[in-house]
Each structure stands twice: as structure tokens, then as C-alpha cells.
Design a protein that fits this description.
Layout lengths: L7 E4 L5 E4 L1 E2 L1 H4 L16 E2 L2 H8 L6
Antiparallel strand pairs: 1-2, 3-4
Amino acid sequence: MSGQCCPDIFELSDGSFAVVGREATAELDSELPPDASRADYERIVVITRETLIAAKKDIPDA
């Protein structure tokens, strides 16, 4: 209601997860580890540690 945004992780109806965070593809693309890659249509999104830890309880184990 304050108009402020914050990072979030939420589950979609198909079981996939969506992440709202800071877009950082240009900044971090060259920093990906050798075993990581992304397709042209994918973006690197940064969320805070606190956001991921808070979402952990809502992410199923299987």
C-alpha cells in the first residue's frame, strides 16, 4: 500500500516459481561460474539473502 516494492518469490499455478528482484544480467553475466549458463531469453535476477531464507519454509522439498 506504500507503493514500495520488495523482492519476492512466489509459486505459479503450474508449480514453477517466479522471482521478483533486481535485474542484474549485464552486471553479472560475465561472473557466472563455468558450469552455469543462461539462454538469450533468460535474465539474472538478484534477491536478498533474507528473501530467500524467508521463502524457504514455503518451498516444497519435493
